[in-house]
Amino acid sequence: MPYNINHLTPVLFGPNMSLRTGMRLKEMGCKRVLFVYDQGIKKAGIPDKIIANCEALGIKTFLFEDVQADPPDYTVEACAEIGLKAKVDGVVAIGGGSSMDTAKVANMLQTNPPPLSRYLGFGGPPMKPGKKLVLIPTTSGTGSEVTNMAVITNSQTGNKGGPANNLLRATLSIIDPVLTVGMPPSITADTGMDAYCHAAEAVTSGQANPMSDIIGMEAIKLVCEYLPQAIKDGKNLEARTKMSFAAMLAGYAFNDAITHIGHSIGHALGAMYHIPHGNACGLAIGEIMEFVAPSTPDGIRRVATAMGLSVNGTSTEKVGAMVCDAARKLNKEIGLKTLKDHGLKREQLDEMAERSLAGPVMFSPRKVTKEDLLGILSKAYDG
Ligand SMILES: [Fe+2]
Questions:
Q1: Which of 16, 62, 189, 247 is buried most deeply by CB count within 10 Å?
Q2: 3-class DSSP state for residue 228?
Q3: Distance in Å, CA 7 to ligand 1 centroid
Q4: How far is the CA of 14 from the centre of ligand 1 (A)?
């Protein structure tokens, strides 16, 4: 079967590499640059050094500091407007998935006519390349730093979706694990499970390929080993570095293989209840793996093997159940919140199942009905 390998995003990886942002922007010829981040990152003081470093090299800087979680289209348009008024020649995101996705689309709007709604979803108009784009993640999970996708909330419908286009990719991704050291345990858990889901869904996707399998398996292995360590001791730079690397690998894996049921549920719960993305994707991932196992016997064995499970001579159904148990155990160990923990009632599961039929569910190796989703959510309800 033919497949795409689109690993096109150059990466500068390593502790303190974010302090080379100015130098790299200068090399790209940038003189006027828009920085995009949220209030949390601002309060943590993370952009200060990076921006000062750029200004010291003579780069004129402009700021958009109001990125919102599950970025609504109107905040992306407000961000783009600042860049257009300032006639910037570069855009830099500092933050998690919401900041990077806001910057990706705001950058695209520097050279493509509004409204943004034209570009959401599949089959939009052809796009022109944006300005130079540098993405600096401060979490380890989203993978947005190396993907060609952005997820934006449509304020008219409340649905999450977005353009997927190689023109959305970063000119350069700067992955500096030091920036993730201050992440609190709950965000470390949520974003780390996002990386796990990207990898596990990619490896079991109907669009998996030999390259995404190799990369996805390594990402799963690293998350299982280092996520609990990063939560136990946030200052453990080795664990943080491995998680940054795992998130990048998982991003490469799912960019081509695409995610499936976990992210369909994740997008629905994000839009309905603003449950953090990685938490929403991960709270039923074990049950999802068990559900898809019969349709991807090789894929589920790869996930199991990467998780350190011994599956020789074991039936596919049993392997699915073992992966489910191991994922539930991981979720408990890292303190990932369940649907019950979020105060949601079992009576609300029906609507969640209905809304989860949208999104990348089509890439599930096993056909999924609303009843199937209801079964998955019911089993996962209280962890
Ligand atoms: Fe994700």
A1: 247
A2: helix
A3: 18
A4: 23
Architecture of domain 185-380: Up-down Bundle (1.20)
Is CATH 3.40.50.1970 what the domain over 11-180 is classified as, yes or no? yes
Give percent of the chain with pLDDT exceeding 90. Answer: 88
* Centre of ligand 1 from the C-alpha of residue 357, in Å: 17
pLDDT digits over 103-156, tens only? 999 999 999 998 888 888 767 788 899 999 999 999 999 999 999 999 898 888
Q: How far is the CA of 282 from the centre of ligand 1 (A)?
A: 9
Per-residue model confidence as pLDDT tens digits over 275-334: 999 999 999 999 999 999 999 999 999 999 999 999 999 999 999 999 999 999 999 999
User: So where are the chain's domains?
Assistant: 11-180, 185-380
Q: What DSSP string runs through 152-179?
A: EE-TTT--EE--B-GGGS-SEEEE-GGG
E strands, the chain, in order: 11-13, 32-36, 60-64, 90-95, 132-137, 152-153, 160-161, 172-175
The residue among 233, 204, 207, 228 whose CA lies nearest residue 216 is 204
pTM beyond cutoff 0.85: yes
Find the 194 Cα to ligand 1 centroid distance in Å: 5
Q: Where are the alpha helices (DSSP H) in 274-356?
A: 277-282, 285-292, 297-306, 316-334, 349-355
Residue located via tokens 């959401």:
120
60-112 confidence digits (pLDDT tens): 999 999 999 889 999 999 999 999 999 999 999 999 999 999 999 999 999 99
Distance 189 CA to ligand 1 centre (A): 13
Element (H, E) at 380: helix 370-380
CA of 195 to the centre of ligand 1 (A): 7
Distance 155 CA to ligand 1 centre (A): 20
Ligand 1 centre to CA of 251 (Å) is 9
